[in-house]
Structures are given as structure tokens and as C-alpha cells.
Design goal:
mainly alpha, Serine Threonine Protein Phosphatase 5, Tetratricopeptide repeat, 3 strands, cell cycle, mitosis, Cell division cycle 16, ubl conjugation pathway
């Protein structure tokens, strides 16, 4: 009986995905060879591929092969992991090897005439050990031990630098900070383990790691010249554009990838985030439904559906239901946790939003977005100290992000540091202009308004008016912008213009208390009844238009203890709507997933 021919037939059926046929012949070969260890190993492989995990583990463990061979130990643990028996899998990987293992193997080899098992099964010891470290990392991930999971993935990559799965888990889940990524790349023995492909691996790893770098910094070495059209390389470039806030270019690149490979796994999260940023609801609706139909067990499918419901507004319960399903399928899926936090944040449920953001922050150590959103929530609850701390952490990860710069400026404004606030706002504006030459996206309208507010504080009234007018170009029907312009005109003594702007503001929003109060004051000043005004209100209006522009706080607000910031509402950079913190509600929308947010500074 020629067993080698039957063994080749087993491999042939495995290659052709005919697992039942492979299992049938693997079982017969194992019997004919009197349970040769390598034949039992391939029998267990066939059982594993037919989802008979416990049978596969039993086939190995009942014969003690998991204690004699690393490959069998790995496969037995993998069977328990596939059956979601994580602790049993970890116990198998961590069990102590018998002291007489090598002696026993030597005797077994002498008796049966076998070669070293690792070479006979066409697997190197370093490759098997790398696989064991990779599996151990996945088990720790499933047990919510991110620290040990990260360590295991690093070890897997050091043992086998070609083990892309370990590298991908580290990077796609944002498990490393920028410094840790740099240290990992330097620690890899590329020159030792892959002399010929060293430049190729270094390029591929660096290209995927440096997502916060400028897209223009991507340089493809001459030796790997054909890779510029590779879809993974294009996705990495698109991700750089995304994190540099150039969403139009990112969308252009991801669309090319999606056209060539409609369900490219690495491209989908970036593409979904870009669709949200560019407000392409119809396209996201179509994509999310196709994903749910084709990949119902993939968390990105339900993440896309949740993003759609968040995007259309007033569907937060629906969004939470689908995002919760995404996190159930994969507890470590950070983008779904961020979007889940947004669903609470748009309803001003700050505690629940922060709980979701903190979960995302633990999962995505190398991403600045969770820190940004946590800081935003602290800012909205008037805790500027903690807000500043988290914005600082976000800035350390993404120092070029204009959203983060804007938020740091907001905190400086709240602390009365007008010059510092102006610097951060101007820096953010420069970054945005560098992306698209001109500020044309309506989500940047609050930044322009906030520049107007801080210039007013610094008595740069002409500049303040210019910024507010630029904001009106982006969102023409914004009552707060009209009232801000009216307020500046009143400070400059242009009461006729002030009256016009306050009238326009009230036409857009009748319940604007600040505009109502200021309109009354400006009309009185315009008709020249300044003496009656001063007598009745006991406020020196000339102090407002003269040396101290902030001396004219109106009494209606002072009696209630309400600041003008609260009267006008916080500005929300995500959609240009307002957060009415004083009333505990919001008309605005929180952008999704990897999408950012902001608050504004209002009048003061």
C-alpha cells in the first residue's frame, strides 16, 4: 500500500476545499500507518476545517501529541479557541513541557525512522512559535487583557517578520502609540530574517504605521516600484489623507479601491468614515445594506448601518441597536464604540457618552479621536481642566489635526486667554487652508465664528466682522452669526446696522433672548433715548462703546445669573448646529466613527 500517494491525495483535497473527502482519506491513512503522529496531525487538521473542533482536539490530546509536538499543541489550542473555550486554549499553550520531551522524541524518531517532526511537517520551529504567540494574543484579546495581547503580537512578529496578521492586529486596532510603533519597527530583525525582502517589508510596515504623516511624504523605493497600484498601499495613502482632514482626496482614493475590490476589508472603515464626513447618506445606505446581506457576522457591516442612522439624525435608538451589535460581534472594535458614544452625545447624555469614549480610548491607544471626544464632553460639562488634559493627549498623538487645535483654542477662550485662543484658532485655520486652499466645508463655520469672538475680545472689530461674514458664506441662515455681527456693530456704535442684524437673527430664531434684549437696547440708543435707557437700566452704555466693550452686560442676564455664552449656546463643529447646554438638549448631530467634533465659544 502506497501511503505517500494517499497522503498527497489528502493534501490535494484540502487545496481544493473538499474537506469531507480529505477527512475520509486522512482517517484511513491514520489507521493504515498505525496512527503515525503526522497522519494524526493531518486528521486533526481536516476535523478542524470541517468545524469539528472538539473531535480534532481529542484526536491530538488523547494521544498526548500536544505534549510532544509544538504544531499539535498549537492546533489543539486553536480548536478550543475556535470553540470559544478561551481559558482551555490558554492552558494548553501555557502548560509546561515534560523534562524528557526531547529524549522521548529521539526514541520515537529512532523507533519509527521519522525525521524531526517540524521539518517533516514542513513547518519551522520559529514559524510554529510565532503562530503560538499570535494565538495567545488573540486569546488575551478575547479575555480583555490588551496589555498581554499587545506583548504577544509583538513577540509573534519578532519570531516571524512575515507574520502580517500580528502586525495588522497591532496597527488596525491602534494598540500602539506612535513611539511604540517606532520602537517596534526598529526592534524587528529584518536584516537577519529577510535579507532579500528587507526593503520591501520595511516599506510596507512603515507605510501602514505612519498614518498621521503628510501624504506627500510617501516615497516608494525603486526596488518595489510596482506597488504604487497595490490596493493596500492605496488604502494606507487614503488613511493618511483622512487623518490629515483631506476627506475629498480620501474619498477619491477609497472609491478607486472599492471599484476594484467592492468589499476590501481594510478600506471599508476608512470609506465609511469618509462617506459620513462628506454627508453622502445615500451611498452609505446602499453600502451598509449590501454589507449586512453579504457579511452579517462582520462587525463593520453593522457599524456602517449604525453610522447611517446617526447620520440621518433623530434615529439614535436605531443607531445604538446596530452599533451595539457590532461591539457584540467584536468587543475590541474601537470605531463602533466611538460612534456609540456619539449616539449619546447628541442627546447631551454626557456620562454615557464618556463611558463609551473611555472604552474606545482603552482599545485604541494609538488613536487621538477618543481623547478628543472625551475632552469635548468635559468641555461641554464646564470642566475645562480635564478637557485641557485630554485635548493635550490628543494633540500629542495628532499635533497637526485642526480639530484638536480648535478645541485647545476653545479651552483657552474659556480660561480668558484671548491671545492664546487666537493663536490656536489661526493655526487650525492655516491647516485647513493648506488642505483645500480655501475654507469651503460648512463644518468649519464655528471656527470662523470663534475667531470672530476672540477678535472681538481683543477689540479687533473689523477682523471680527470679517470672520463672521466668512462664516455666513458657509452657513447663511445661522441666527447666532447674525446676532454676533449685530453685537459687534453695537460695540462700534453702529446702532442702525446692529438693529438690522438683530432683526435678521430674530427672523431666523424668534426665541433668541440675547437678540431680543440687545435689539431693545440698540433701538433706544438709535432713537437717541440714551438718558431714559441709562436711568432705567443703570448701565453705562457708553462704557460698552467706549473704553470697556464688555462693561455693558444686560441686567436681564445678570439677574438670572446666565452668561451670554449660555444665551447663545455652545457651537458644535461637527454639523454647525448648536448645543443648548443650559436647557440640556441639542439640535445638532454628532458625526460618526472616526469623525470629529467640536464646541464653540459663543459671545461673552
Amino acid at each position: 500500500m502506497n501511503l505517500e500517494r494517499l497522503r498527497k491525495r489528502v493534501r490535494q483535497y484540502l487545496d481544493q476545499q473538499q474537506y469531507q473527502s480529505a477527512l475520509f482519506w486522512a482517517d484511513k491513512v491514520a489507521s493504515l500507518s498505525h496512527e503515525d503522529p503526522r497522519d494524526i496531525y493531518w486528521l486533526a487538521q481536516c476535523l478542524y476545517l470541517t468545524a469539528q473542533y472538539h473531535r480534532a482536539a481529542h484526536a491530538l490530546r488523547s494521544r498526548k501529541l500536544d505534549k510532544l509536538y509544538e504544531a499539535c499543541r498549537y492546533l489543539a489550542a486553536r480548536c478550543h479557541f475556535a470553540a470559544k473555550e478561551h481559558q482551555q486554549a490558554l492552558d494548553i499553550l501555557d502548560m509546561e513541557e515534560p523534562i524528557n520531551k526531547r529524549l522521548f522524541e529521539k526514541c520515537l524518531k529512532d523507533e519509527s525512522g521519522l525525521k524531526d517532526p517540524s521539518s517533516d511537517w514542513e513547518m519551522s520551529q520559529s514559524s510554529i512559535k510565532s503562530s503560538i504567540c499570535l494565538l495567545r494574543g488573540k486569546i488575551y484579546d478575547a479575555l480583555d487583557n490588551r496589555t498581554l495581547a499587545t506583548y504577544s503580537y509583538k513577540e509573534a512578529l519578532k519570531l516571524d517578520v512575515y507574520c502580517f496578521e500580528a502586525f495588522d492586529l497591532l496597527t488596525s486596532h491602534h494598540m500602539l502609540t506612535a513611539q511604540e510603533e517606532k520602537e517596534l519597527l526598529e526592534s524587528l530583525p529584518l536584516s537577519k530574517l529577510c535579507t532579500e525582502e528587507q526593503e520591501l517589508l520595511r516599506f510596507l510596515f512603515e507605510n501602514k504605521l505612519k498614518k498621521y504623516n503628510k501624504p506627500s511624504e510617501t516615497v516608494i523605493p525603486a526596488s518595489v516600484d510596482g506597488l504604487q497600484e497595490n490596493l493596500d498601499v492605496v488604502v494606507s495613502l487614503a488613511e493618511r489623507h483622512y487623518y490629515n482632514c483631506d476627506f475629498k482626496m480620501c474619498y477619491k482614493l477609497t472609491s478607486v479601491v472599492m471599484e476594484k475590490d467592492p468589499f476590501h476589508a481594510n478600506c471599508l472603515p476608512v470609506h465609511i468614515g469618509t462617506l459620513v464626513e462628506l454627508n453622502k447618506a445615500n451611498e452609505l445606505f446602499y453600502l451598509s445594506h449590501k454589507l449586512v446581506d453579504l457579511y452579517p457576522s462582520n462587525p463593520v457591516s453593522w457599524f456602517a448601518v449604525g453610522c447611517y442612522y446617526l447620520m440621518v439624525g433623530h434615529k439614535n435608538e436605531h443607531a445604538r441597536r446596530y452599533l451595539s451589535k457590532a461591539t457584540t460581534l467584536e468587543k475590541t472594535y474601537g470605531p463602533a464604540w466611538i460612534a456609540y458614544g456619539h449616539s449619546f452625545a447628541v442627546e447631551s447624555e454626557h456620562d454615557q457618552a464618556m463611558a463609551a469614549y473611555f472604552t474606545a480610548a482603552q482599545l485604541m491607544k494609538g488613536c487621538h479621536l477618543p481623547m478628543l471626544y472625551i475632552g469635548l464632553e468635559y468641555g461641554l460639562t464646564n470642566n475645562s481642566k480635564l478637557a485641557e488634559r485630554f485635548f493635550g493627549q490628543a494633540l500629542s498623538i495628532a499635533p497637526e489635526d485642526p480639530f484638536v487645535m480648535h478645541e485647545v483654542g476653545v479651552v483657552a477662550f474659556q480660561n480668558g486667554e484671548w491671545k492664546t485662543a487666537e493663536k490656536w484658532f489661526l493655526d487650525a485655520l492655516e491647516k485647513i487652508k493648506a488642505i483645500g486652499n480655501e475654507v469651503t466645508v460648512d463644518k468649519w463655520e464655528p471656527l470662523l465664528n470663534n475667531l470672530g469672538h476672540v477678535c472681538r475680545k481683543l477689540k479687533k472689530y473689523a477682523e471680527a466682522l470679517d470672520y463672521h461674514r466668512q462664516a455666513l458664506v458657509l452657513i447663511p441662515q445661522n441666527a447666532s452669526t447674525y446676532s454676533a455681527i449685530g453685537y459687534i456693530h453695537s460695540l462700534m456704535g453702529n446702532f442702525e446696522n446692529a438693529v438690522d442684524y438683530f432683526h435678521t437673527a430674530l427672523g431666523l430664531r424668534r426665541d433668541d433672548t440675547f437678540s431680543v434684549t440687545m435689539l431693545g437696547h440698540c433701538i433706544e440708543m438709535y432713537i437717541g433715548d440714551s438718558e431714559a435707557y441709562i436711568a432705567s437700566h443703570k448701565v453705562s452704555w457708553y462704557g460698552v462703546v467706549g473704553k470697556d466693550p464688555d462693561a455693558g452686560k444686560n441686567l436681564a442676564q445678570e439677574e438670572k445669573g446666565v452668561t451670554e455664552d449660555e444665551m447663545l449656546g455652545w457651537r458644535h463643529l461637527l454639523s454647525g448646529h448648536e448645543f443648548e447646554e443650559t436647557q440640556g438638549n441639542s439640535d445638532g448631530q454628532r458625526s460618526l466613527a472616526s469623525v470629529r467634533g467640536s464646541q464653540g465659544v459663543g459671545h461673552d
